């Protein structure tokens, strides 16, 4: 039983970066596909489409910082349950926010290819989704401070 608890603690340490990477990969892929499609329909402005399609990559960066923070606490029998809970739930939040941010960016790209003047306003939903990733990032950092090794 002790080995299982320790293993779950390690899962919690690495879950934010792993799940953040999965979500970022999916989100960037969705947005990137929309950017590629938009470039077929417009004569200029390719850079902004490619630039915003990278927005979902930030969630893996948050996951890396959280992983290092949780790893610094140390996995012990006492800390493992907290590490597992914080790491797994934060990782899931990062994964979903990256996926949905990619979909929001795809919507921005699709709307602004036909009406370029709405680009700034249409990126707002993707920025709002980013805010939820930041909330989970801060949550993990603050809650992680309460775990004792």
Task: Name the assembly state.
Answer: single chain
Q: What does the largest sheet look like?
A: none
Quickly count the helices: 6
Rounded to an integer, what's the Rg over CA atoms? 18 Å
Helix content: over 70%
Termini separation: 19 Å
What are the SSEs and their pairings?
Blueprint: H1 2-41, H2 46-53, H3 58-73, H4 80-114, H5 119-122, H6 124-144
Helix pairs in contact: 1-2, 1-3, 1-4, 3-4, 3-6, 4-6
Question: Overview of this structure, please?
Answer:
- The protein is an all-alpha fold and about 150 residues long.
- Helices cover about 85% and strands about 0% of the residues.
- The protein has helices at about 1-40, 45-55, 60-75, 80-115, 120, 125-145.
- Helix 3 runs antiparallel to helix 4 (about 80-115) and helix 3 runs parallel beside helix 6.
- The model has no long low-confidence stretch (mean pLDDT about 95).
């Amino acid at each position: 039983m002790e080995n299982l608890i320790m293993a779950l603690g390690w899962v919690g340490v690495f879950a934010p970066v792993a799940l953040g990477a999965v979500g970022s990969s999916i989100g960037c892929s969705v947005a990137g596909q929309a950017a590629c499609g938009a470039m077929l329909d417009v004569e200029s402005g390719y850079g902004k489409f490619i630039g915003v399609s990278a927005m979902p990559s930030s969630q893996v960066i948050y996951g890396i910082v959280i992983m290092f923070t949780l790893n610094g606490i140390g996995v012990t029998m006492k800390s493992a349950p907290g590490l597992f809970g914080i790491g797994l739930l934060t990782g899931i939040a990062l994964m979903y926010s990256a996926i949905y941010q990619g979909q929001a960016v795809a919507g921005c790209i699709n709307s602004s290819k036909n009406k370029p003047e709405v680009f700034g306003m249409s990126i707002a939903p993707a920025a709002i989704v980013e805010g939820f990733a930041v909330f989970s990032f801060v949550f993990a950092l603050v809650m992680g401070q309460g775990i004792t090794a």
